[in-house]
Amino acid sequence: MNFLRFLFSKALYKQLLFLCLSIFVLFWAISFSLKLITHHQEYLEVPDLEGVAIAVLPAIMEQENLRFEIIDSTRFVPDLPPLSVIDHIPAAGSEVKTNRKIYLTVNPSGYRQITVPNLIQITKRNAESMINAVGFQLGDITYKDNIGKDMVLEIAHRGKLITPGILLPKTSKIDLVLGNGKR
User: Fold this and answer.
1) Which domain does 170 fall in, by range?
2) Most buried of the four, 143, 152, 156, 159, by CB within 10 Å?
3) pLDDT, tens digit (0-9, with 9 covering 90-100), for 125-149
């Protein structure tokens, strides 16, 4: 009986009203303070960093109130200068908050070094496919008197004979000396 009287009393309704008002004020205070703390609706535009040298990058990022981190530098792009930005995330023109970290892909100083495969005593056709598969380019082809027609006798780079197994930059031109089939 006392419980039923309490359910219909003014004290319960006052407490429920006080609880609802407290929750509303608390929600409003948290929402307002979060907008102030997080700088709601205040954005910076990410500048276009493609082609910018790493040496200049810290000054630009400090001026823009941004941070950066280099995440990759394995893909070489010959059109851009060495040690410059190839790409970045978020992209240029994106809206970000102050002090946001920008992730950069940087152009290495040159192509990576690759081992020259053993091309001696194989046919021109096989040597050509091996050169292309590894990442080199086929250079000049010269012929020398030898019974093995189109058989690779020597390999050269920039006019100098080289041995299989040495390291050369990717996309280097490999010259072949082939047999012409004459004794």
Assistant:
1) 113-179
2) 152
3) 999 999 999 989 999 999 999 998 9
